[in-house]
Specification:
two-stranded antiparallel ribbon, elongated, about 70 residues, about 30% helix, alpha+beta
Length: about 70
């Protein structure tokens, strides 16, 4: 007899397979968390791509004088 795991966020039972790959929340709660996270990828001039997760970094990225305040 296998016991189904309980979601830490809403308390609903979810799939054992989902728990086996490391998730502690159900699919709907996981979707809400994923939608709340925002990021973008910025191509740098004559360089590589950079992952930006903070808006202040994005504002000052193309400024030759440094960070924009």
């Amino acid at each position: 007899m296998k016991i189904k795991p309980i979601c830490k966020s809403c308390g609903v039972e979810y799939s054992i397979k989902r728990k086996a790959i490391g998730y502690d929340v159900c699919l709907s709660c996981g979707d809400k968390v994923a939608q709340s996270k925002k990021h973008t990828v910025v191509p740098m001039h004559k360089s590589n791509y950079m992952l930006i997760t903070d808006l202040s970094l994005l504002k000052g990225i193309n400024n030759k004088g440094g960070l924009v305040k």
